[in-house]
Batch of 4 targets.
Target 1
Amino acid sequence: MAFTCGMPSISVQVRLLLVIAISTCFLITELAVGFKTHSLALIADAFHYTGDLLSFVIAYLAQKVQQLSSHISSLSSYASSSPLSSYSAS
Ligand SMILES: [Zn+2]
C-alpha cells in the first residue's frame, strides 16, 4: 500500500530503501568527519545513528516478511480450497 499525501505514489519499501541509503551516507560522513576532527560528539552520534539505521533495516525486513507471508497465504488458501469450502465462502 502506498501513502500519497499529495506526493507521487512511492511504496513503503522504496521509501525505506531511500531512508536506509541516505542514513548510510550520513553515518559514513559523520564517522569520517568525526575521526578526522577527533570530535567525540560526532563519533558518539554516529554510533547512535547506527541504532537508528538498524531499526530502518528491521522495518524493511519486516515489510518483506509481511509481503512474503501474504503471498504464501494467498497461495496456500488457493491450493487447499475444496469445493465445499469455496462453496461456503461464496
Ligand atoms: Zn536516533
Target 2
Amino acid sequence: MKNFIKVVLSGLLLFSAYSCSKQEEFTESIFVDEPELTPDIKTYKFDKWLEDNYLIPYNLDFRYKLPEIDSDIDYNLVPTRLDKSMDMAILIKYLWFDVYGKIVSEDFLKTNGPRIIKLIGSPAYNPSLGTMILGTAEGGIEVTLYRCNELSSTNVDMMNEYYFKTMHHEFAHILQQQKTPPKEFDNYSAGYYDPTGWQNRTASEAASIGCVSPYASSQPREDFVEVIAVYIVKSDAQWQALLDLASKPGVNASGQTVANNLPMRGDDIIKAKLEICRKWLAEAWGVDLDAMHKEVQERQKQIDDAINQGLSEINAIN
Ligand SMILES: [Zn+2]
C-alpha cells in the first residue's frame, strides 16, 4: 500500500486574490472579527504565543483548530492535536520565518509571506489516484499543511519529507505566482513531464530525467518549486546522493532500466535547474538560496532545543 501512496503538493493559482491584498498597507489586522483572547480560554497560553509570534509581527492567522467551515469537504479530515500543533507552530517559525528573517530581511515574510497557515491532522487522500495531498498554497495568502498528527521530532528526514519540504514548496509557489520564473527551465526535461502518471515513477526514474522527486516530474511549475524546496531541506550528502542517482540510468519499480532521449544526463539537468532557481531567487527576490540551505541545515541539528525553548515560552505566558 505504501508504494501507492505518493505525495501531492498543490498550489492553486488565484492571482487576483493576491494582487488585491498586496496593494494594501496592512497597518491594522485583517482578522478583526476574531474573538478576543482571554485567559479563561483553555488554549490561552498557546493562542497568546501565536498572537505574539505570528499575528502581531506577520499579520498571520495561525489556524490549528479546524472549524468545519474552514476545511475542504471533499476529504475526511481531522484536526491536529494540541501538542502537535504547538510543535508545528514552533518549528514553522524556527525553520521558515526566522530563517527568512535572518537570511533575507525582517520584512521579507511580512510583505511576501502567507496571511493564513492552516494545520490539518490527517492527510487528504485521493483514493482513485493513490496519492495524498500534503500541502496547498492558495491565492498567495494561505498555506495548509496536512498530516500534522504524525509529526515526530526525532525523525528529521520524515519531517523534511512531509512538512518542511512542503512548507518551502508551498512558499516557493507563492513567490512563483508573483514573478514568473525563466521559461528556459521548462526545456530541460521537456517531453517527460507526466501530470497523471508521475506517482508511478521511482525516485531513480525521476532523477534520470533531471527531476529531484517523482512529483517534480509531474509538470514544470511543480518541478521548479521542488528544486528549491528539496535543495533547502536536504543535507549536502543527501543532495550529492541525489545527483549520483541522477547520473545513472533510471530504474523503474519492476527493476527495469528506463531509457530516455534527453540530450543531458539527469545530474547535469538538476544542476542546470538549480542554477536557474538560484539566479531567479537572487535577482527577483534578493534571496540567497545557498545561505538559506546552510541556515536550515544548521537549524535542523537543533530541533529538540528549538521545541523545548518554544514550549517554555508558551508555558511562561501568564
Ligand atoms: Zn505544488
Target 3
Amino acid sequence: MALISLSPAQHQALALLQQQLRRWNSRCNLTRLVEGDDYWVAQVQDSLWPLSRMSPPFRGPLQGVDVGTGGGIPGLVLAVALPESRWVLVDSVQRKCAAVQAMAGALGLQDRVEVVCERAELLGRDARYRGRFDVAVARGVAPAPVVAEYLAPLLGSGGLALLYRGRWSGADHRALQQAARQLGCRIRARERCVLPANRGQRHVLILAAETPCPAPYPRAVGIPARRPLATASSPPTLEANP
Ligand SMILES: C[S@@+](CC[C@H](N)C(=O)[O-])C[C@H]1O[C@@H](n2cnc3c(N)ncnc32)[C@H](O)[C@@H]1O
C-alpha cells in the first residue's frame, strides 16, 4: 500500500496523539482503537492513505474541515501530516470537542486547529464556514448521501470532499451520485485500498464542487439523516461496480 512519508517529528506527534487518546479515553469514551495496529493501522493509516491518491497532491496552506471528528480522527492526523494546513474540527458533542481541543493543544496544533462544537447542518449555514474550505472530510459519521449534504455546503470553489467509507457498492455509488448532483457536486473519483493487519477494505469517495451549493442545503438539523437526498436501494454488493 502506498503511504505518504512522515518525518520523524510527525511520527513522534502521532505517538503523542496516541498517548493523548489513551489519557482522554479514561475520562470520556472517544475510541477503542488506541493500541498497536488498532491505532497505527485502523486510525493513522486509515486517515492518511487517501492523501497518496490525490492528484495533484495536497500541498501548502489549505483550509480543511473534519465533520463529526469524534476523537479528532481523521482531522488531527491530517493536520500533523500536512504541516501548512489549517483545520476546523467539528462535532456536536461537547465533551468530545473539549477533549479534541486539549489534544490539539498538547500536540502544539492550537494555531492551526480550531474546534467547533456544532451540528454540521448549522455550520453549513454559518457565513463564517459556508463555502470556505478547500477540503472537507468525514469518517464514520452517516450514510454517504447524508455526509455529502453536510460537506458540500462547506466547500469553496474547486473544493473537494473526501468521504471515508468501508465497503462500497454500485447501489451506494448511484445514491451518492444522485445526492451529489443536487448539491452542485460530482463524484470525481472512487479510490480503494486494503489496509494491512487484516483491517480490511476501505474506500474514499472524492466529490468535487462544480457550482456553489444550492441555498436550501444543508436542510434543518436532523432532516438530512431522516430524509436522505438518496438511498442505496439495492443491497450492497461485496465489490463496488459503479
Ligand atoms: C462514529 S463517530 C466517528 C468519529 C471519527 N470521525 C472517527 O472516524 O473515529 C461519529 C461522530 O460524528 C458526530 N456527528 C454525527 N452527526 C453529526 C452532525 N450532524 N453534526 C456534528 N457532528 C455529528 C458524532 O457526535 C460522533 O462523534
Target 4
Amino acid sequence: MFNATKEELIEFETKIHDLFEEGDLPFLTHLCGGNEDQLIEVFKDVEEGDYIFSTHRTHYHYLLAGGKPDVLEDKIKDGDSMFVFDQKLKFFSSSVLAGCTGIAAGVALSFKMQNKKNKVWCFIGDGAEDEGHFYEAVSLVEGWDLPCTFIVEDNDRSVDTSKKDRRGKDHPIKWPTCVRRYHYTPTYPHAGSDSGKWLKFNQDVLEDHKKKRDRTIFQLNTLSHLHDGVNIFFVKTDYLHHFFHEYQDYDKPITLITGNSDYPILDKMVDTAPSCITRWWGQAINTDSPIVSALPYGIENSVHCHLGEHLGYGHPGGAYKAIVTKTPPTRKPTKDVYANFSETTYKGRPRVAELCREADHITYDIQSVCTDRPYKAFVDNVLDHKMVVCPRGNAPAETHRFWEVLYLGRVPIVKYKKGIAPFLELPVIVLDDWDKLLDLEFLEAEYEKVKDNPTDMLDISYWVERVRDHG
Ligand SMILES: [Mg+2]
C-alpha cells in the first residue's frame, strides 16, 4: 500500500506546523518528520484489509494508510490529532504509551483463529519499547506465531530523554522477528513546533472551540428538570386535558412546559387552559395567544424524562445523535443543497421531493418510505452541503431535522409557517413557495444573507433562562 509521496507527507505536516505556529491549532499536536523514507518502505508491505495501529503521532501513518489529507486536517483541527480512527481504513490509534500493542496482538490472534489472511501492523516509539505491556504483546505474537508486526520507530527519545539516559546503555534490545526497527532523526520536537516562542492562540479559534464544547444541545427532556410541581410544570402534550382538569382551581401562577408529541398547541386548547397558567412554553405551537411561546423541537431525546418515561421517552439511537450534534466534525461543504426526507410523513412532501429531483443543484437522496439508514451517512451528507431542504412533518412547523442541520453548522431551507417565526433569527432560509428551490442563484443569495446569523438559540441555556425569566 502506498498512498502519499515523501513530498506530500512533508507538505502536509508543514501546513499543520504552520497552523500551530500561527495559533490556529489550540491543541497538543505531535508532528511527524524525518522518517518519510523509512515509513514509505514499511507501508509497501501493508495490504488492503490489514489493520494498522498507530501511536500519539498519527499523521504520516494515516496518510500512508490511504487517509485523505483534508479529512485528517479536519480531525487535527478538531483536536483529534492523537485520536485518529478510521473504520473504513481499519486504522486505530492510542495516545496511551504502548496502548495499542495488546489490542494489536488480540486482533492478530482473532485473524489466526478465523484463518484470515490479513495482517496487523502496530507502530510504537522507542519510549513505548520500555513498557512491559509491549513485552507481553510481543510474547503472545511470537509464541503463537500471530500475523502481527511491531515497528519500533526509534528516534532515541522518550519525550526528551535518550535511550542511554533511560537504560544506562545505548545498545538496541534484541526482539524476536515480529519486531522491526528503523532509526530516524526527528524534524520536530516531541510535541508542538520548534519555534521555542510563547504561542498566542487565535482568540476566534479558541472562542469557536469553546462555544462548541460548552454548548448544550436542546432536548426537551432536559427541561423536565425545571419542573418543581409548584410553579413550573412539565407535561407531555398528550396529557394536557387531564392536567387542565386537575389544576382547574389551582391558586398559584403556573409556567407550563409542553411537548414530546406531534399534537400542535391550538387556540382552542389555550382557551380551555385554567387561568392559573400565566406562561406556556411548548413545542409545535400554532396559536397567537400572548401567553404561549414556542420551544424548539431540538434533538431527539436520548434519555428518558426524569419525571417518568411516559412523559418523554429517551430513544436508544438518540445518544449518538446527541454526541454528533454537540460536537460536529469540522468540514467544509463542497456542494449546494441536500434533500433527504421521507415522502410519507406529510402530504405536502411529495411535491417538494419532485422539485428536488428536478433541480440539478440539489443532491436527491429521498426515499418514498421511511427506512432506517445509518445516521453517520446522513451526517456526512449534510456536512458536505451548504443547505438542506427541511419540509414540515406531522407537526406544524419545524422538525428534528431542521435542528440537526443547524447543530451541524448548515443552513436549513424551510417554507414559511407561523410556527417557524420564533426561530427566524437563526441561519435559516425561509421560502414563501417551494418553487424557489429551483432557483440556485436565489438560494445562494439567501444563504449569504443568513449564514452568519446568531446561533444562541442552539444552546439550551438560552431557553432555560427564558423559561425561568418568564416564570
Ligand atoms: Mg521515541
